[in-house]
């Protein structure tokens, strides 16, 4: 889905290290109760009149009661940050992955901003918080340490506070976990602000300790990140969005697709989807390899037409990706048009071997649609973790709005996609056939546990076939 709001979100996530919203604007400004209530009513009106998935996971009664509670508890003026914390809880009530709420500062870039942040990259694994990268010269807390508290708040409570305010499709939690594992310090600042230092409780190898870590501005964090982790790629490099690697022994081919957005592929990766994919499959088919690994991990989606083009090389009979579209028209849910409806024909020269698809919580939106089609056609073995995107029904084509007073940014979807049927909807992502999740040790050592498991699976299958 190529709406401007989704690309804005991608821009925010990729540029936030270098430029970040300026503290002291709407986030710190105090707003009257009347202004806050007006913004809340404006948001509810926009959702009711445009969002076709508003009542998919929570009834109208529950949604109304949530907004009534939010309004009645507005008893005193709040800063923009406090109001964001107050209303963003609706993300876990609406449960729609494309209904994005961000504070006003997140969508503005200020080169002169002096805000400071926690100088760590933190991951959530099995509900616990770990440091996998350290962006400071202070070595008090090493990579691999479990973070047990931040500024006297238990890590479990911080995780819950942030997770409750994250988007997700239905009851899925791999997507909010994936978001926080990639952008923890940004979302921490949205709720808790920008303290000058952090009191961190930690544990490593059964040793428990506490350290006070000085907060750093974004440019310092960026400097240490580049200096200390030169082997890790933090930006989109030309030629890396779509990548094919052939096993020297021709046991398998590995096709990695990091993004389905044409705009991102062209501007950031300097690649054209159809041209690259056609070339890749010519190589794969000519090689005679019997196994293809398709890596859709961390792929946030994009143009649905690109997903259809990929699927045409993977399926050998006509297929559909979206069965129905709905929108809100004159206050009612109605069928509407949308991209790539109907049946699609496979390519004459398609891959007929074994297909293994790698997935995780970052496999969202169009990645979920592609996975859904492959699962419906019983075409692939899925390895990894539950997808962030729902394989049965989701929303898209969002309109971006700013609340009139606080300027809080919100994406409101305008179309509902039904890939299989609403009856099939389990309010979860697509589940893997083989659940494989990396540990903190795997991540620190650079061990791609999911890929290695898949290669072992291929080897075992090949051996049993002999």
Name the features:
about 475 residues; alpha+beta; 6-stranded antiparallel β-sheet; 6-stranded mixed β-sheet; 14 helices; 21 strands; globular; disordered N terminus
Short description:
This protein has 466 residues and is α+β, with helices and mostly antiparallel strands. It has helices spanning 4-15, 33-50, 60-72, 80-87, 91-94, 155-163, 174-192, 218-228, 262-267, 273-287, 304-314, 366-376, 440-445, 449-465; strands spanning 30-31, 78-79, 101-102, 116-117, 120-125, 128-134, 146-150, 153-154, 197-204, 207-214, 216-217, 242-246, 253-257, 291-295, 324-329, 332-335, 354-359, 381-384, 393-402, 409-418, 434-435.
Structure description:
There is one protein chain. Helix 10 runs parallel beside helix 11 and helix 11 packs parallel to helix 12. The chain has helices at residues 4-15, 33-50, 60-72, 80-87, 91-94, 155-163, 174-192, 218-228, 262-267, 273-287, 304-314, 366-376, 440-445, 449-465; strands spanning 30-31, 78-79, 101-102, 116-117, 120-125, 128-134, 146-150, 153-154, 197-204, 207-214, 216-217, 242-246, 253-257, 291-295, 324-329, 332-335, 354-359, 381-384, 393-402, 409-418, 434-435. Strand 12 and strand 13 (253-257) form a beta hairpin. The strands form five sheets. Strands 5, 6, 7, 8, 9 and 10 form a six-stranded antiparallel β-sheet that branches. A six-stranded mixed β-sheet has the order 12-13-14-17-18-21, sandwiched between helices. Strands 3, 15, 16, 19 and 20 form a five-stranded antiparallel β-sheet that branches. The protein is α+β, with helices and mostly antiparallel strands.
